[in-house]
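sorry for the late reply, my laptop died twice this morning and i had to redo everyting from scratch. anyway the thing you sent over, i finally got around to it. pasting the sequence first so we're on the same page, its 273 residues, then the predicted structure underneath. double check i copied it right bc i was rushing
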Amino acid sequence: MRSDRLYRAQAIILRRGDFFEADRLLTLYTPHRGKMRAIAKGIRKPTSRKGGHLELFTHSQLLLARGRNLDIITQAQTIEPFLPLREDLLRASYACYVGELLDQITEENIPNPRLFYLLRDTLARLGQSRDLALTVRFYELRLLGLTGYEPQLFHCVRCRGLLEPQGSFFFSPMEGGALCEACGPLPAGGAQQAGGAPLSLAALKVLRFFQTREYELCQRMHIRPALHSELERVMYRYIAFTLERDLKSVGFLNILRRQDVAPNSPSQRRGNP
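ok and here's the structure:
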């Protein structure tokens, strides 16, 4: 194989699917090419040496060959396997959500190194975090900021007035952020997107904190279950409106929560969901 066709890249595997009899089509996220797809030939054969290095959410060093339509992975070496994500169903499910959100919000071949490192750090955090929802809310806000969809949380998106820590607040996915007490209520009989859903002062403060502080500070917060539920509703509505679709992994996470699956539960230490 000609050496000018070969190149090396770090990558995290976001998605994979069977391709022909023994190959796999992988969706990768890389620091310098962004999201891309590549073929791993023969990976499903029992004798393949690449299989263990190309598992879902593995951070690997790859050697690729440029192809006419899709590049081909010729070598792979694991940098970080993120093993806790393979041993705990709930952590694995949150990782699926993190990967699906990045996959859906980005286009192929648009470099964004900061997104790659956010993904890498988030997968590592999900393996250790005692508050997985907090870790994911931080990721969502940073991801939205890096892709141009950051919600406005400091000024009313309609009247542009500063949102002071008093009175009532609302959040409008359609208008891209928070609304003041005067601008936010739904009109009588109006559609949901015409106004904003109520947003508590506590939720506004937490979202602002995640948006402007580093993770090391954010992870120290203790968030009550009711507030976690509100934050999740706000972010899921905003993300679904932004993507114009619901994410499949959200439904699976909701099923796990209804079953009250806790991180590190011995009965839930399985493979990938």
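The radius of gyration is 21 Å.
thats about all i looked at so far, will dig more tmrw
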